[in-house]
Amino acid sequence: xxxxxxxxxxxxxxxxxxxxxDSELVTSQLSALGYRxxxxxxxxxxxxxxxxxxxxxxxxxxxxRLGLLKSRKSRQPDLxxxxxxxxxxxxxxxxxxxxxxxxxxxxxxxxxxxxxLLRNASTTAEPAVALQGNTSxxxxxxxxxxxxxxxxxxxxxFSPGDQRAGGRSAYVRITRGxxxxxxxCVVPFTRGAEMHRPPDTIVEECRMLVEQGVVEITLxxxxxNHYRFEHDAAVTVDGVTQPQKGRSFTGGHDRDPLGGGRVTxxxxxxxxxxxxxxDLRRLRFVTSYPRDFGDDVLEAIxxxxxxxxxxxxxxxxxxxxxxxxxxxxxxxxxxxxxxxRIRACLPGxxxxxxxxxxxxxxxxxxxEATVELMRWARFKNCFVFKYSPRPGTPAYDRLPDDVPDxxxxxxxxxxxxxxxxxxxxIHAAHIDRTVEVFVEGMSTVQARxxxxxxxxxxxxxxxxxxxxxxxxxxxxEAEEDDCGSACATAAEFVPESDANLVQLSGRTxxxxxxxxxxxxxxxxxxxxxxxxxxxxxxxxxxxxxxxxE
Length: 549
Ligand code: SAM
Ligand code: SF4
Fold this sequence. Notes:
The chain is of the alpha/beta class. Helix content is about 35%, strand content about 20%. The chain has 18 helices and 24 strands. The strands form seven sheets. It has a six-stranded parallel β-sheet, sandwiched between helices. A five-stranded mixed beta barrel has the order 20-21-22-24-23. The relative contact order is 0.10. Bound molecules: S-adenosylmethionine (SAM) and iron/sulfur cluster (SF4). S-adenosylmethionine binds near residues 16 and 55.
């Protein structure tokens, strides 16, 4: 049935996996209320941007889209234009001053209120606004008030046809927000205090997803290893156990010091999911924080074969001076010690990282220390970002952005070259080996060659992936600056033109992108399954092989 224009939504998503999940939850919430989604902004009566504020570049894309919509809004006053997510929270009413044609602002902590905001925005001339401000940090108790956002996760309806990898891959949030306050980062201000979801709820959500055919689940949180739920402090409101605020955490290397019978630690949660959802084939988690990652978590990964041996643990810099200025709370020596513990406990594990170049005060010596750390750590991949000063963060207020852009760019490219050589070697070591690949969809090349055949289901949200640490729709990292297209192009294996074959793309347990050709007639059935692939060739970002069934 055709939806009336006022109920036809175009939703575009920017940013990390957390935003992708938020968009999925919003989609399911609005669909239940009769809204329908279109990938074509021109035919929509409601245009929503789910935004990212981590770097200015991501914000500029949204400003430009909002600017372009100004004349359409004057021609079509009943068009509803909404900004969701981190930009709404960060810019707040300033955004309405710059773009008075925006009808609705909704921060990431208020997304459960979106239906009400849409109704208000369509019936009054005033913009409808729901922002969290500082309220999430006010209460001192672990779970004092009702957390209405929890209901959004709980009401999730998963429609396999609309999801990544043919509905076989899903994200599940275990914590929201962040308490770390790294000096460069907006997240603690836009997503509020760290909140930990009750473990029973997480297990139930994963069980429900697996019953609906999900094969791979990625647990999400800004610092997943800080997950902890204290059962004696649990509060239930209207039958819903409430998430808890994160306490300051100094877990050290061994165990969570508060771990024990009445506390579910991150290691406990992983083991519960592994044991209580036995049909889940792959369990992943992002992002890990280099401090307080206990040996108990490493042991859980070692002992539970369906937990992927892949750890994304951003280091940000190889210089202690810069790490301190970033308020990261660990030294390079501690980071190295963590990598050594991973290697000792989980031989063959793949480790990925993030680095920021050009942080205020970064000298050539600091930068060289990062190069050295990268050579030593041998990450399987590393996202390199040029420092972007973000208003409202401590670094923006206190530290001048004193590294010139051309120096940032040079350092960025130099790190990408170092990492590229390491990734190439790690990939090449897989030649002649057979790896298990979770098939996500058509490869980028195949989808470009035959857009109509793209293995992704027609994306109901019109979402695009400007993914920071996430994945693009077709299995190639979609970083939008220096690394971006150059790396993506270098990664591509152009398949031979054969009408009976298509090129599929997927990931190994260690998150290595792998492409292979498969009979066209079987392609849709293979998407979402785990298949053996014998590796024949390796490039910087991609492995290429043949089906080894
Ligand atoms: N919570 C994760 C952690 O601490 O490792 C990272 C989350 S953050 C949204 C993703 C990445 O964006 C960070 O690891 C960092 O490298 C990068 N990032 C964050 N703020 C940035 C800024 N102001 N400029 C450049 N890169 C930034
Ligand atoms: Fe940002 Fe640091 Fe929190 Fe990661 S840990 S989200 S970088 S403040």
